[in-house]
Amino acid sequence: MMKSDIEIAQEAVLEPISAIAEKAGIPEEALEYYGRYKAKLTEPFLKGLEDKPAGKLVLVTAINPTPAGEGKTTTSVGLGDALSRLGKKTMIALREPSLGPCFGVKGGAAGGGMAQVVPMEDLNLHFTGDFHAITSANNLLAAMLDNHIKQGNELRIDTKRIVWKRCEDMNDRALRNIVIGLGDAGDGVAREDHFVITVATEIMAVLCLSRDMKDLKARLSRIIVAYDMDKKPVTAADLKAVGSMAALLKDALKPNLVQTIEHTPVLVHGGPFANIAHGCNSVRATRAALALSDITVTEAGFGADLGAEKFLDIKCRAAGLKPDAIVLVATVRALKYNGGVPKAELGTENLEALKKGVANLEKHIENLGFYGVPVVVALNAFVSDTPAETSYVEEFVRSKGCSFALSEVWEKGGEGGEALAKEVIDVLENKKSAYKSIYEDSMSPAEKIETIATKIYGADGVDFSPKALKELDNAVKLGYSDFPVCMAKTQYSLSDDPALLGRPTGYRITVRDVYVSAGAGFIVALLGTILTMPGLPRHPAAEGIDVDDNGVITGLF
Fold this sequence. Notes:
This protein is of the alpha/beta class. Helix content is about 35%, strand content about 20%. Strands 1, 2, 3, 4, 5, 6, 14, 15, 16, 17, 18 and 19 form a twelve-stranded mixed sheet that branches. Helix 4 packs across helix 17 (about 420-430), helix 7 runs antiparallel to helix 10 and helix 14 runs parallel beside helix 15 (about 385-400).
């Protein structure tokens, strides 16, 4: 019987991080050690990489996630290991996991089976403290905002138009809507407040999109925290908070170097959710990986309608990146789930459901084609898959003009990803990417939203709430109309309704609210009932996590 992910990770023999760095061409003096198996890259070294030629960039994305699991991170790790096995100098660039999902329902972000990033427990629990720094910087700004109001409100902040929220990196629905400042006069001004999860904060987005400290401080200075009595924005710079926030983020801005079970170098840095944020690892980590390797494998969160769209329309814009190939991950189980099969029955062959559910894969293939980047479909293998099901998916994919490979990295690690790696290499060597965004900067924010909704989601149109229309008008008046749009919606469906599986048609998208993330450099549109602070399920994963007398953690997945 296959061991659990954490058992496999704990039995892995790790190399000292200095050896992994040497393999990647990173000198020891460029490392800031966090124990034997983790290190950050120094600022002088990162600056020295800026003028180096970049290798090829491969983005890994997936169909819409289901309870059956798709294995996008597992595929990313296994593909990186496979490329290394085939003699390619490879680096993997991934996001850091949030504590909320680790103790909630989703699990960690280290991959799975024989395709994992290690040390797995460290990665999933605190890691090098980046998220704590982001949380502290966010809440420092909140504290300075409320203190300014208490100390006389020189900036004439309208307490009914405060938009900055507090945060913590844990699923806690009770903090979504709160009241602060209760008690005596010395306890502050009473007002309604809110919490978001750390990975959904603008500070996280700012850190992930910043190229260096100068860029970070410029972005922090532009963050809008509130509006004054004249309806003009009040920024972090107005509150004189930028320097202290940057001091808290100084070390968090540096990418983290770790390794896979097979000792492929991995840069893990930043971790925004793709359903409520832009869902990509940091620009710094991606650019560093490109300078240090022939091929960089990176991923974007959730389905291609979320993470990949934001990678291609937001991150590539901000960082000047041009992906050379895209790997689209699917599973037979997830496709059957999209075809109406309950989770408990996914292990049984069902070609009719597969043929119905493959429409979800078809739409994602179509969507990625809009960007001009060649696509390889990776079918992540499960033991319950039958030859007839696998053959059907392969024939369907090839009929759409895409490359195809069966991925067995969960069971076999890099060896199980060699077929996929060969397809990726063939694409990189023989197909030219003609990357382009699906909308122009000159389009209005409403037009950008409508383009994504109709072109990527397949909606018939968009309905804007009165509040959303008002905020869109305000964004244009403030000069932010050139910004890209970050769509916040359910990850489970192409639509804004999680119950609409497969490839829904005949529906409209509802935009209930809009706000400007001026520091991040995008406009956020909240669709449907999406929440920025998740809650725990009835039986959270935390119930099964423990640590023994020797400090060995169990139950983490």
